[in-house]
Request: fold
Amino acid sequence: MTARILSIGTAVPATIVSQERVRDFFAGQPGVDRLTQRLVHAAFDAAAIDRRHTVLTQLADPAATPAPLGGGATGPSFVDGTALLEPTTGARNDLYTALAPALTAEAARAALRDAGVAASEVTHVVTVSCTGFFAPGPDYRLVRDLDLPTTVERYHLGFIGCAAAMPGLRLAARLTDAQPDAVVLVACTELCTLHVCGSSDPQQIVASSVFADGAAAAVVTARSDRPGLDLERFATAVTGEGEEDMVWTIGDHGFEMTLSAEVPRIVGREIRGAVDAFLAAEDAPDAWAVHPGGRSVLDRVEAGLGLDAAALAASRAVLRDYGNMSSATILFILQAMLHDDAIADGSRIAGLAFGPGLTVESALMTKRAAVAG
Reply:
């Protein structure tokens, strides 16, 4: 029996910031020189993003109360007047601990509801995140918040980066291979904007121009004939270069993202070889779900694979409306494809996501739009 994604639920914070608003805020930081202002405008304007969601209310309104920690307490201020502040990593992580579980639970409840699966039926939980840490962790909180059976097996994939949803789905498929009656809840939650910082470093500016907050969850099982996406197979490829071009480290004032201008070029050079090693000629996909690390990454994938302009429309739409939500983003794209009637029953979907390393994670899926039999 083949593991199938029955449903995908998504959730985003209520605060929305326009790309222009955040661009002008970063460009207007005290002490920013003209070169940095030009870099900020260039990066933000080229990102092909209209708006993003954030847990940081002050990014939309500097006069707003800082994000809540719960129990009446509030987190640190990220903005003082027009100036961007730099809370410590511990203070940022406190916000992650306070805010990430509710967003995860919201996405997971939506996934279970859409799948017609009761919480009591879940046998395994796989959580994914690279933007915060706490223990008992997101996997534990999801069991508690959704009142899942206390016997649920829990797994957490941490600090893998933007590509991590693919290993999460792969683990779910492996679990269903071993236990055909398994019902696996995979949840990806990223609060990327918690690590926002002001900088004149072009790589930090690019990171600030694309990252956003969001959560997505998928219900995976092999025991249902409901419509969904069959998980046919997976592949991992590590490129011959790029180890120092996409890097995620922990600093004293947040997690620090290195995202060099070489990343899109490496993707463009390596993508054809990675895909050819994964897909045989008879596996030619009908649709593509590509993680939108940024507009230039999508452009390089499109050119490198010789795709037509419409092939990455779903990826570009998610980038435009939500930004790069790290690991959760590919699930937003797959959710749109699940509900897209233009992608017919039996259509094959190739999924691609990119992470530190530089690593290419791939999945081949088949859409099942009608109940079998």
About this structure: The radius of gyration is 20 Å. Residues 67 and 75 are 5 Å apart (CA to CA). DSSP finds eleven helices and 17 strands in the chain.
